[in-house]
Amino acid sequence: MNTIDPHIAISTKDLTIGYQNKKERISIAKDVIFSLQQGELTAIVGINGIGKSTLLRTIGRVQPKLAGEILLDGNELESYDPLALASKISVVLTEPIASKNLTVLELISLGRQPYTNWIGTLTNLDKEKIVKAINMVQIEDLQHKKCYELSDGQLQKVMIARALAQDTNIMLLDEPTSHLDLYHKVHILKLLREIAHETKKTILFTTHEIEIAIQLCDKMLIMEKERSSFGEPCELIANKSFENLFPSDTITFDSQSGSFKVKK
Ligand SMILES: Nc1ncnc2c1ncn2[C@@H]1O[C@H](COP(=O)(O)OP(=O)(O)OP(=O)(O)O)[C@@H](O)[C@H]1O
Domain ABC transporter: where (predicted)? Predict the structure, then answer.
């Protein structure tokens, strides 16, 4: 048992991630403490291929870490059995779901699997959590549709509702707003922020929506090849951490407005 701040849900130390078959490995926050606090919304940003999804998948134990330590509530992530982990962490990935023949309601009900008996009987509490998740994401009108009938954006909302129904303390989401229009991107990220703050959940997501993340997130991890930066958006702006994210001959960062400008 390690001593750790009780308000930290996940923290990493000297973490190296990547794929076993690849030579290139990614070290996260070598000299930065990357920690996910209860009640906070944290975004991982960075250019294509830098390793955002790999980090998220490693923290969700979807793939193994290569070196270093990931602590969940003070214990090594690997020390949890799969069922115990499923009641602590929910993961929403970008892969297409295999069970598109299910109705939306059936798919969201699967979120309750860690808590139901072996034949999957739903208790009143399970049903309550499912209805609440559907209401939160505002997809009441979709619940009886088959998943194959949904648009990419609608399916993305359904997958978020399934994670909400799972009702874990930690939620990990890989690009949860990639198929949504601007209004729905903001709506979903505001919802995640509200959930983190009101229910004290720890929410981590990857995104390319850097400007919205700056406005809504409590913390951000900027992944870069040489050195990652982690902290509150205003600290990262003050430290000029966004300035080297993209080649400066094409895109520059305006620290006054917290937005990117295209160089003409
Ligand atoms: N299944 C895989 N096997 C081997 N290498 C992979 C696999 N998936 C991704 N990679 C490699 O791992 C590196 C990090 O990829 P990852 O998907 O984590 O990046 P990302 O920052 O999420 O990118 P994007 O913004 O494009 O989604 C890339 O070099 C990628 O080619």
Answer: 10-250
